[in-house]
Amino acid sequence: MLTSTQHGSESDAGAPAHVAGRSTSWRAADPTLVPVAVLALILAAMVVPPLLSLVQGSLRLTTSTGDLGDFTLDHYRRILTDRQFFQSLANSVVFSIGTAVLAIGTGGVVAWFVVRTSTPFRSLAYLSAIVSLGTPYILYVSAWLFLLGRSGPLNAVLMAVTGSPVPVFNVYSLAGMIIIEGFLWSPLAFLLLSAVFRSANADYEEAARMSGAGVLRTLTHVSLRMMLPALLAVAVLIVVRSLEAFEVPTLVGLPGGVKLMTTEIYLDTKKNVPPDLGYASAFSVVLLLLAAILLYFYSRLVRNAARFHTVTGRGYWPRPFELGRLRYLGDAFVLLNFLLVLVVPSFALLWLSLMPFSQAISLNGLKALTLENYDLVFHSAFYLDLVWKTWVMSAGAATLVMTVTVLSAWLAVRRRPGAFLLDQLATVPLVFPGIVLGVAMIQLFLAAPFPIYGTVLAFVVAFAIRYLPYGMRYASSGILQVHPELEEAAGVAGGSLPRTLRRIVIPLTRPAILSGWLFIFLVAARDVSLAVMLASPSAEPVAVAMFDLWGNGQGTELAAFGLVWSAMMAVAAGGLYAVARQVGASGFGA
Amino acid sequence: MRLAGLVATAVLAWCLLLQGPCGAADATLIAAAKREGRVVWYTTLIVNQAVRPLAKAFEQKYPGIEVRYSRADSGPTALKILNEARAARLQADVCDGNGTVPPLVRAGLVAAWLPPTAASYPGELKDPNEHWISTNLYFLTPGINTGLVPRDDAPRTLQDLLDPKWRGRIAWSNNPTAGAGTFVGTVLRRLGEEAGLAYLRALAKQRIVSVDATSRAVLDQVITGEYAIALDIFNHHAVLSAAKGAPVDWLKLEPVAAPIQVASLLKDAPHPNAGKLLLEFLTSEEGQRIFASVDYIPAMPGIAAKVPALKPDPGGFTADILPPEVLAQNTDRWMNIVKELFQ
After folding, report:
1. Searching chain A, which residue's CA lies closest to the CA of residue B324?
2. What's B23-138+259-310's CATH class?
3. Does B176 reach chain A within 8 Å, measured CB to CB?
């Protein structure tokens, strides 16, 4: 069914052959060689120095003064000879796949309902994604622990229902870890997939419906299959990221005795001052290889990319599905997601922010309600000073990343000569632990011939490197769907390459670009592990100040500040998003 | 008698001549510091709570000298300074922490200089090689949820913690310098290696829960009722929360670990005189009173904590002072025991 709908798939059989059709010597004629080379240089300059310092760190001992010592393979040996290696490996695999399934299962399904049906709750879904991505990680995890913990409301209800004298649900388990990590990534899946669904062609789905297929059959046989590369791209991203995750495994897993591969490595980086990063670096190198293998299979899978082009020269604006009574199910799902991703954790934070000290939700606690924490936050000019700098850092990084990755992704997806390298390079930072990247960046900035160390610009560069892989995945999934026939038409009509990109490719992939920008803007602003290393008296992001409060256990003040900050991020992001879409809509009509 | 009086007067006069009135800093030092115009402080103290009031008071006392600070935990702070020094672009003048200083001393980055205020501090709170001086103290004790642990039931000795009724209800932070590491370390130091390890093996059967957060956050979980007891929490945190009405108290269960917070002047400080002036201010009576006023426990003897009983003498308990070197030399081994027996 899908193969019969291919349009001009010969153009994708291989770029060289395709270009050779037009010119006898494609090497001389291909206008993309120069941009590929330039982008490869830019990306290499961004990722190779930290990569080198990662590999070097993994092969050297660290002396007691933090210098690199003798050559050693000990770090790798330790990883492979850990007596609980296979148990931890199994836990890690279950954790990562479970997280990806949950994140895509919630975020993806919500994205489909929001984009492809006429559910009235679409704005709630965007609001949930934006606010939860803007909420500091630590705060989000502690809100979930607060809710699902032994003294939390879930267990209070379960104990009342079952009559059990002890807590029924143990959050400090693999299941609890998957729930928390899954909900952390669900907004990413939502943003990425909603961008994909929005620019998908509904023709095939309608054809299926007209041939008598039900909604479910259409979904499984047509929609899901067309979305396969995008779904896989998100899955690969989430699996790799959760394999590497430190926070949930230690905050949730450690108290329950559930060990993952990262647990010991994370504890290792915290044991000594200065931290010994060799072991963590070796683990990152192993993960980097694993990610490369995963990405290799992924790229083989989507090699015949024509199967997935849904944005073609024909009218493509997707028409919403008519679900009949099923739509209520969709509405309910979107609402439930809104409750779980936004309302419930926010309510936990709101409760904490109104308490003089951290305490369980109870009628008794209502007597202690106070606005003292908000008073502290609003009268602390210190924090407000940090806000604009944080915005500049994360907006700068998001803009830099999307500019580089849209071009790179286009070249890579169109299989231009050498462009596969761009995808590989942009994916490298995915597995850098924040602190390792931080050390590499400090060394780089200190060695720079111009004074960049300790400036806002240093953060822009460092965040851009850290979030390159996300930009690349957003941009790739958007471009994968645009059929090259549109660009070829522009070429035939005499449009130059830059003009074609500006007038065809960028407008058609705008939803993906915007989603990617927004995602990076939100997550860069809450980064702690990298930011702590780069913070200086003249440049410090908000998240570092938040970490400070958390370290001192000013949890209730942090909850208040976190909520205010998330609200500011949501307003800022929502405003920018609306403006960009407005501009985009008028530009698109032209 | 008369001679003693004369000597005392002479000493006092000499001090006044040397230091100016009320122990204030040397005038030439102040002038030199003002010419530098700025001091950069890499701190592990909490900005909102301690750093800003201290910086503000310093800037008021010495107008024209701006305090610029950057806050991170001990590990990242040491890493930053080591890297800056390696590139010969050191930014910091003064640094502090309970783990920051030893690696910097080993790398030869710390100045051997203590302010005149050091004379008022006992030997255990300053380095004999003049590399550091303590600014404030921490006393790590158990904290309990008073709703879950009736007062008569509260453990009083290490043995009491082995009562089966506490199994699975005790938590600690996996922090090496304030949590699991210091608990294990003080037990070994107090009971000796053999008896200490035997005790820890028995304690491991209680399934102590390791929480990857600071001791303060572990205490918060005790307050919400996740656990009944937290080991090695900061005793002043329990007092602070109890004052706000939280069901929490701390126990004088010995041995009490006392890791100390210390500050140092860096050898190649870009603003050495302003750095000296800041270090002197932090350890002066005036600076110490600010520590007390913002609920930290001042190091200078004779300056009481806001709640005096938090300090050993008025509180009636003894503390095992853990200077930076002791922590630096032992935390690795202590944490290996934690991993071996408890995780």
Report:
1. A273
2. alpha beta
3. yes
**Residues B62, B65, B66: CA angle, nearest 5 degrees:** 125
CATH topology of domain B140-256+323-342: D-Maltodextrin-Binding Protein; domain 2 (3.40.190)
Backbone angles phi, psi at A482, to 5 degrees: -85, 120
Residue A313: the pLDDT is: 55
- Cα–Cα distance for residue pair B69/A569, rounded to 1 Å: 26
Q: Chain B residue with minimal CA distance to A273?
A: B75
Q: Is B190 on the interface with A (CB under 8 A)?
A: no
Q: What is the pTM of this model?
A: 0.80
Indicate the length of chain A as a whole number. Answer: 590
Does the pLDDT value for residue A317 go beyond 80? no
Q: Assign A397 to helix, strand or coil.
A: helix
Chain A nearest CA to B225, separation (Å): 6
Structure tokens at A216: 């479910």
- Sequence ranges of chain B with CATH classification 3.40.190.10: 23-138+259-310, 140-256+323-342
Is A369 exposed, middle or buried, given 0-12, 13-18 or 19+ CB atoms closer than 10 A? Answer: exposed
Distances (CA, A) of A282 to A51, A262, A429, A436, B79: 12, 11, 14, 11, 19
Give strand ranges (E) for B112-265.
133-137, 140-145, 170-173, 209-211, 229-234, 248-250, 256-265
Domains identified in chain A and CATH numbers = 30-63+272-310+373-590 (1.10.3720.10), 83-262+322-345 (1.10.3720.10)
In this predicted model, what pLDDT tens digit does every residue of B231-257 receive, in sequence order? 999 999 899 889 888 999 999 999 999
The complex scores an ipTM of 0.74
